[in-house]
Input
Amino acid sequence: MRIGGQEVDSDRLMTIVDPSTGAPIATVARGDAGHIDAAVAAARDTFESGVWRTKTPQERAAIMRRIVAAATDVADELVELELSANGATVRQATGFHIGYALAHFSYFADLAETYAWQRPAPIASFPALSQSVVHREPIGVVGAIAPWNFPLLLTLWKVGPALAAGNSVVVKPDEHTPLSILAFARIAEQNGLPPGVLNVVPGDGRDAGARLASHPDVGKIAFTGSTAVGREIMSLASGTVKHVTLELGGKGPSIVLDDADLDMAVDGVLYGCFVYSGQVCESGTRALVPEHLHDEFVRRLVDRAQTIVIGPTRDWDTDMGPVIDAKQQQRILDYVRGAVAEGATVALGGEALDRDGFWFQPTILTGVRNVMRIAQEEVFGPVLVVIPYTDSDHAVRIANDSEYGLAASIWSSDNARALDIAGRIQAGSVWINDAHQINCHVPFGGYKQSGLGRELGPDALDAYTEIKTVHLDLSGGRDAKPYDLLLSHADQGASR
Ligand code: NAD
Output
């Protein structure tokens, strides 16, 4: 663990396993609620001391950029730490998991410099002349709870804006994947982040995570993970009325219109679903296809999906790696079997692979209706369902018939038509002729039960600041004030 600038050990350990082999690769201290208390106390001390909070935004940005430069120098080591614990392929870990993480952290440094820390309001003349200025101030101690799929990236989406705004932070990484954020926190302290500003406590969700979400000295909790745990976090945070940001699950539709470029749509739908073995919250896991194109589209999907190379994660030729663990592998299998029992047909895959580690075949299911569990619940594995639709109104109805609303894609050669449909989709991101377009310059997050609030984008720091309005009276004296709404004029009062 990293608490108050110290590496802290524990008698209780967690074993980190490489999902591509099933072999243990590291042991890490298993923090508990007591360690969370110590980390929150360290974060609170640094916040109150002002060692980070009172630096100018430019000073904070400069240190954050120095951290990015140092992390970039050892990017290959971070890639290895990330993929060895979460099973990403080396291509995905380099581009998405670590590449995006460092680029986005750098974006938050830029935001610190351009953010409107003070916004003067227009001078008011009623009820008396005055000027108000809206100040944005750090909240205090921010708690960040992250999942295993993009451990560093999704942690830095919280740590980046929190630090840019001057907060101190306690991170509770996922049980599978504490390695990259522990390394990052060490690099951060070696490059100018004062000790205790960024604390990392690996541990169990129900113990360490729950304590962080309910801790009275934590002013904000930012969480990415499943919708079920998101509900618990919200309820735990309600005890002290914390700020809450939630990035939760998804069941994204990929809507193929009848005028789509089918070569691009086939590759795009597969990319949208199978990248990182389908373990991306905003994956397009439901392909909605016009009835008359259904059979041809499925044939082309299946042909193309058969070219996906499954292999060692460190091999640059590998397209798809394992799933996170044996439990998730079994859960995916249960979902597929359940779908077949409900009437679905396996067009491709459908089975776990019999090799060391935790592998699952790219799987395509047809004969799926949107009411089926496989179309409503998040599988979090390489499983694509194909659902036919009659016309575009029908496609929009199916797309929106979900408790989730994180992301959607539309495949069409007619931009006006695609934009019209985009306007009718209930989702936080809609990509036209694209998928997985995570851009730090625009907000990311979900409608409905996919979350609360947004991460990234030009306003990302809003969620890590308190708003304080400071009012300055400019009236020039007692006579200009409206106090006679309550009090008689001072002279009259004195004479009575
Ligand atoms: P999870 O909800 O099981 O765990 C996420 C984190 O919460 C872990 O750190 C875990 O230890 C912690 N946790 C578990 N129970 C807790 C509790 N009671 N109190 C506090 N913390 C607790 O999710 P997961 O299996 O790690 O991740 C997969 C899920 O995350 C999927 O549903 C996926 O869609 C979602 N996800 C969403 C986004 C997004 O941005 N919307 C991104 C990635 C993943």
Notes: The two ends are 70 Å apart (CA to CA). The pocket of nicotinamide-adenine-dinucleotide is lined by residues 145-149, 154, 172, 174-175, 205-206, 209-210, 213, 224-226, 229, 232-233, 247-250, 281, 378, 380, 406, 446, 451 (CB under 6 Å). The longest strand covers residues 130-138.
